[in-house]
Amino acid sequence: MPSCVKQIFMAILTVENLHKNYGPIQALKGVSFTVPKGSVFGILGPNGSGKTTLLGIVMDILKASSGSYQLFDEKPTNAHRQHIGTLLETPNFYHYLNAVQNLKIAAAIKQRGEGDIDQVLQIVNLEQRKFSKFSTYSLGMKQRLAIASALLGDPDVLVFDEPTNGLDPMGIAETRELIKKLNKAGKTIIMASHLLDEVEKVCTHVAILQKGTLITYGHVDEILVTEDIVETGAADMQQLLKVLQQYNNALQVKMNEQHVDLSFAPGKAELEAVNRFCFENGITLNHLRLRKKSLETKFFELTQNKQ
Amino acid sequence: MYAATLFGANYIAYRIQEAIYAQKQAKGIAALVLGNPPYSFPSVWQATANISSFLLFIPGLILIISVTNEYSYKTHRQNIIDGLTRRQFIVVKIMSAAILSLISTCLVTLTAFIFGMADGSNAFSFEGFHYIGYYFLEAMSYIMVALLMAVFFKRGGLSIGVFFAYSLILEQIVVLILNKYTNYFGRYLPLETNDILTPFPRVDQIINRLTSNTPDYTTFFILALVYLAAYLFIVTRKFETDDL
Predict the structure, then answer these.
(1) ipTM surpassing 0.85
(2) Could you tell me if A59 lies within 8 Å of chain B, comparing CB atoms?
(3) What is the pTM for the complete model shown?
């Protein structure tokens, strides 16, 4: 197999059956997945779902209770970490040093030159304050410095834990653009987030964590499929439900408090056809509306089904 | 600062000695008990080592602050994330402990030399210089205990509190109790082992005669080394296996 093809299939990170207990609390319950090279891999989950714990284990600052992981298809060592730019949880820097001094320390640990310090500071718009002490920075600026630090030495893999935390709307947009740009340049990005919208906007792959359990993972288009929902209503709801259950084109028919909902694959819902079907079966609709299912609803569905 | 404190404390002891030996009658008693002035060669090495060892909490403090600072800013995590191994990180801290001990020992040597020359009652001599070696061992042990506290408690205030309470008071109390009710087992406690090795000149001999129990210094020397090895092992192991 030619080496370039092999590289495409290389796994950046493989996690196998990871468990982590904090005393009686199980933070991770047997999580396994693979991050393919060149992807933007989103780890999605609500607060306390184990995202940071998972990344902490991969970065060797937490010890897994059981299970294993691999970096670049190899047993993980510190040399691997030197080639990964990581922002984990909070920006961690020496408060009494300025941005440049802090980045010099990081560059020395990563065994990279100090040549690109100015460049990374420029990318995150921190040049004007580069000689200010870290303790004088605002939350957003600290976050920017952490991103700059991750970019040091132009690593092929970047790990971002809640990268847009504390940033202003401009900063959020810039960071997302930056992630997309880095990915286009061939870099693999692993990103943890509780913001569904963020994952949907920038990620190619997603893993959904819920209370330490991996609910599902795969390509974003497959996992976060959006559906079209048709809401219907009639005087006799029971009868309506019975009739619509005979309607073959719908993926799913469900009754809630006010309506009977039919779900369709995106773009496949035809209101006229639904209306005609009901009328032909002796029901006159008093409500008919097309609604796009929001990602949030989808997410709630995904996380609640598996509880 | 530390150098000034070290020099200052020895200066106080030196002045006390000067005052005692200046009075004729007191001199007679002192000479009877202590022999030559402690701050004259050769006992000056031992006297300075003994007095200076009371100040070892200062380098201990420096190390605790340097390590717990890393914990409170979480920079120890960032260093590991950026690609240090856990062992590299903790070895650097142990090296800091060694360097602090070395600096401390150099200062003590210099201080002893200056006071020995200032006293001038005897000619310069290297006799008893091995007490400086014991002092280095003692410094290393105290500072490693400080590191142990920092690694276990992680928070600056707590580590400092426990370190002070243990090294200055708690262990002394236990030593006294054990020495009173058992056959001087108190002497085998971790820091006391080192203290035994650097007694004040001749005072130790008097006490030993009074209690008719002379410690075997070789045993204590070996025991001190064993304790030191244990600190190194525990600190390294704790840092390598812990969640950071």
Answers:
(1) no
(2) yes
(3) 0.82
